[in-house]
Design goal:
heterotrimer; A mainly alpha (307); B mainly alpha (268); C alpha+beta (363); A: 307 residues; mainly alpha; MetI-like fold; 13 helices; 75% helix; C: 363 residues; alpha+beta; OB fold (Dihydrolipoamide Acetyltransferase, E2P); 6-stranded mixed sheet; 5-stranded antiparallel sheet; 23% helix; 34% strand
């Protein structure tokens, strides 16, 4: 039987031509890559020139003293001036307290969102996301109205007889914390929900089957499994609290100063930008450390879970 | 999936979550009735009803002027962030740039950096070069920094679930990359684009800290004026401003939601 | 009805390679495609066939090599300048356009006049037997219809050649077999050079003038369906196209032998180097009756292991005395029912001299 096979002569492109061809193709490849890179350039320039570069500049500026000399003068201010000590204490205390309260309030919400069937779960998610659409300014203002001397909360407390005279709920740390928790809770709920959603509920059923009470199963099985999301969410909220400006400025009554406010004030207070830059670097360092810790912890926790 | 724990046993959970949700959502709405109050105190319930605060808002240059500034800046940010963000997202998605991950991380990083830091960074840059402080275009650029991550994230997600063979087919039929993108890809990414535009508009409109640092006087945004008024001289016009802001920020997502659902019904 | 005018053009692939670092997805491939030919690129996944198609289309840049259509080098051209029609596996019809707008798309890009566009769209829709569908939305079409619209769109602008990437894999079996014949018929009417990629050997055998079989980035063999089936060059091809059993052969002074038995060939095979195997197609083996000695044919003795009823045929497994297993396929006809052996029965299998073929053991 005749075979319809075409026996081809070997390639008629000689090695030199092949080499030239290869180089031409590589050149085209590089040209295309360059075009693609250029497409990212406008966005990259905006973020790079207006955020990344200035941060580097901040770093160098922080080491320049008021008379122009290089040194740690601006950083020493942190220890020498009493205002700074108070500011550090305020910032950390508020951040811790707010984060803790967010955790207590947010964990059950995330839990319910994760175990409810749709459409309820979706509905709950919508409610949790709603605050994101409203400006922080508006929300903070609402708290001002509600927490003022003759505001709703005081009226209610007096009416039910819990207190005799209205108490100061705003223009102090209390008001600041209430306002910040209000803004931060959804930020904790979302990552927590994400990690909870991934948990197989059969594990809880298996625990019950083996004789565990719901509370016990929760503590020993569910809680540990939610750790990655919990750690990520908690640290993220903490970090955001550190850098907060609006709420402490408005609900703190001028008495509560956190880092962000101090940075802004330093610009007007000192003749050079050095002190403000030093504070900025400090805030940046704290943010970076927290995020780094969060990343490592989450990675280690997820690795452990995978066994 | 049904849980083996009954609803009754979980009642405390439902009540607790209900309270938390109430705490999250309800307080914001207090600005609405207070905006119709007849007195200058921010008391609730208001002793009488009146629209004087709305008249005050529309009657004062500082409010109307700053609203107009905010709208222009927000619109400009929407255009700039969306266009540059779409170009960058597309390039990152389509090519295997060696620094692709680094570029993407950089573009998304403003989310992780505290706003105050971004704000003074921009302030320092603008203070050094002339013609940027206290200008509309200066603010548009500044706001685009914080809006960029939203555009990149939204567009990247949209591109992930988009079938790139559509664009390949268009190119095989004779369209160059740009034409294929404009006539085939972009129309199919309508919702991602709309969401990006909406998010960047809202991010800019709500933005306070950057505006605080780089604008003042006649070029102040609404947020800045609101903040200054809140801090210095509380005035129920603020309640009217807040109510109006609530409406502005609630309508677009609602509209988008309705349009998306109607399109889903038609397309399915 | 006027057909899109097409000319049959030859395609020449030379020294084409695509390397991804150390991996050679396509390794120095050269072959020619005759004008108007329907060539199928066949191979398992990862064999490089799709990468090759993508390089011809322009979506993948070769590491080296040349691709020429009618003598014109296209390897440095971007896809939109190559004037090549392409049908993708998932059809990639534009969902935001109607059927008519989809088909008109390439014509609008070429600035064809409105009246002419309408004409050509109508013609090509009639050609794929979907006349009148111009105003339908893509979501209203069935899988088979989408396939035909994708085809219509790919040929309406009279491309120089047509490429198809697993065009039938998304269809169910029934539709696939119908479309195989449809596409072949369309190809014959248009006379366009067509290159199709598939991993389905039956599809390749049905539709192609020639098949190029790929393995691990290299071209294993290129031949007509009959040629590949009857004269595969290696075990890989013999197994990929159709079924086969193999018996190891050793070279002796008198010829090739299986054990002590000298194999009888019609034409003495050349190129017997390395490990050679005797290829036994299951349908070419017969149960021998009568005189089973002599040199008119090849006889193998063994014992039946299993008999499997497969509807149109029966397959039985025989363990030869030489220690190797072979498969025999017998058509399920009433007169052959008498010949079907039982499990455990001793049989003698017969392979005609004309059906004796050898293949290389390695690729």
């Amino acid at each position: 039987m005749a075979q319809a096979v075409l026996n081809l002569p070997p390639s008629s492109l000689n090695p030199d031509q092949l080499k030239e061809n290869h180089q031409a193709l590589q050149k085209e490849q590089r040209s295309e890559a360059r075009t693609m890179f250029r497409l990212t350039l406008p966005a990259l320039l905006i973020v790079g020139l207006l955020m990344v570069a200035p941060i580097g500049w901040l770093l160098s500026m922080s080491f320049v003293g008021q008379d122009g000399s290089i040194g740690l003068e601006n950083y020493i201010l942190f220890f020498s001036e009493a205002v700074y000590r108070e500011m550090f204490v305020n910032t950390f205390v508020i951040a811790f307290v707010v984060t803790a309260i967010c955790l207590i309030l947010g964990y059950p919400v995330a839990y319910l969102m994760a175990i409810l069937p749709s459409p309820w779960s979706g509905f709950l998610m919508l409610l949790v996301l709603m605050p994101f659409w409203t400006s922080n300014l508006v929300r903070t203002f609402s708290w001002l109205i509600i927490l003022q001397r003759n505001g709703l909360v005081n009226q209610l407390l007096v009416w039910i007889g819990a207190i005799e005279r209205p108490i100061a709920l705003v223009h102090n740390m209390t008001g600041t914390i209430i306002g910040m928790v209000h803004i931060m809770v959804p930020f904790l709920i979302l990552p927590l929900y994400a990690s909870m959603k991934a948990i197989d509920l059969n594990l809880m059923r298996a625990a019950a089957n083996l004789g565990s009470t719901p509370a016990h199963a929760f503590r020993r099985v569910y809680l540990p499994l939610t750790m990655p999301g919990l750690v990520a969410g908690t640290i993220m909220v903490f970090v955001m609290c550190l850098g907060f400006y609006i709420t402490p400025a408005l609900l703190g009554g001028g008495r509560i100063k956190m880092i962000a406010q101090r940075i802004e004030e330093s610009l007007a207070l000192y003749p050079t930008w050095g002190p403000a830059a030093a504070l900025a670097v400090l805030l940046l360092a704290m943010t970076a450390i927290c995020l780094g810790v969060s990343l490592l912890l989450v990675r280690r926790l997820t690795a452990e879970m995978r066994g | 999936m049904e849980s083996h724990v009954s609803h009754r046993e979980r009642l405390w959970l439902y009540i607790f979550v209900g309270l938390v949700i109430f705490y999250l959502i309800a307080p914001t709405f207090i600005v609405v009735p207070v905006s119709f109050s007849s007195t200058t105190s921010l008391s609730f319930p208001p002793p009488g009803w009146s629209t004087r605060w709305y008249e005050s808002f529309f009657g004062q240059e500082k409010w109307i002027g700053s609203t107009w500034v905010s709208l222009r800046v927000a619109f400009g940010t929407m255009v700039l962030a969306t266009v540059t963000g779409i170009a960058a997202s597309y390039a990152l998605h389509v090519s295997k740039l060696r620094m692709g991950n680094l570029i993407r991380s950089t573009l998304i990083s403003p989310l992780a950096v505290p706003s105050i830091l971004i704000a003074i960074g921009i302030f320092f840059v603008y203070a050094r070069i002339g013609g940027m402080l206290n200008t509309i275009h200066g603010m548009i650029l500044g706001h685009s920094v914080v809006a960029m991550p939203f555009v990149i994230l939204t567009m990247s997600a949209g591109l992930q679930s988009y079938d790139m063979t559509q664009e390949m087919v268009a190119r095989s039929l004779g369209a160059n990359r740009f034409k294929a993108f404009m006539t085939v890809t972009l129309p199919q990414l309508k919702f991602s684009v709309a969401t990006s535009m909406l998010l960047s508009f809202l991010v800019s409109f709500d933005e306070l800290i950057i505006s605080l640092m780089i604008s003042s006087g006649p070029v102040s945004t609404l947020s800045r004026v609101t903040f200054a008024t809140l801090r210095d001289d509380v005035d129920p016009t603020l309640a009217a401003v807040s109510t109006l802001m609530l409406i502005v920020t609630c309508i677009p997502p609602l509209a988008l939601h309705i349009v998306t659902n109607r399109a889903k019904k038609k397309g399915a | 009805m006027t057909l899109p005018s097409t000319t049959a053009l030859p395609v020449q692939v030379q020294s084409l390679s695509k390397h991804f670092g150390e991996v050679r997805a396509v390794d120095d491939i050269s072959f020619d495609i005759r004008p108007g030919e329907f060539l199928t690129l066949l191979g398992p996944s990862g064999s490089g066939k799709t990468t090759l198609l993508m390089m011809i289309a322009g979506f993948s840049r070769p590491t080296n090599g040349s691709i020429r259509i009618a003598g014109q080098e296209i390897v440095h051209l971007p896809p939109h300048k190559r004037n090549i029609g392409m049908v993708f596996q998932n059809y990639a019809l534009f969902p935001h356009m109607t059927v008519g707008e989809n088909i008109a798309y390439p014509l609008r890009l070429r600035k064809v006049g409105k009246a002419e566009i309408e004409d050509r769209v109508r013609n090509v829709l009639d050609l794929v037997q979907l006349g009148g569908y111009a105003d339908r939305r893509i979501s209203q079409l069935s899988g088979g219809q989408r396939q035909r619209i994708a085809l219509a769109r790919a040929i309406v602008f009279e491309p120089r050649i047509l490429l198809m990437d697993e065009p039938l894999s998304a269809l169910d079996k029934q539709l696939r077999e119908t479309m195989q014949i449809e596409i072949r018929r369309l190809h014959d009417r248009l006379g366009m050079t067509t290159i199709s990629v598939t991993h389905d050997q039956r599809e390749a055998l049905t539709m192609s003038d020639r098949i190029a079989v790929f393995s691990k980035g290299r071209l294993a063999q290129i031949a007509s369906p009959t040629g590949l089936y009857e004269q595969p060059e290696s075990r890989f091809i013999a197994e990929f196209i159709g079924e086969s059993s193999f018996l190891p052969l050793r070279a002796t002074p008198n010829g090739l032998a299986y054990g002590d038995q000298l194999i009888q060939f019609d034409e003495a095979p050349q190129h017997t180097s390395g490990n050679m195997l005797l290829m036994l197609r299951p349908e070419r083996l017969r149960l021998a009756t009568g005189d089973t000695s002599g040199e008119g044919a090849n006889y193998f003795r063994g014992r039946v292991q299993t008999v499997v009823f497969q509807g149109e045929s029966l397959l039985f497994e025989v363990m030869l005395d030489g220690g190797h297993k072979v498969f025999v396929r017998v058509a399920n006809r009433s007169d052959s029912a008498r010949l079907v052996p039982e499990e455990g029965q001793r049989v003698t299998l017969c392979l005609d001299r004309a059906d004796a073929r050898i293949v290389r053991a390695e690729d």
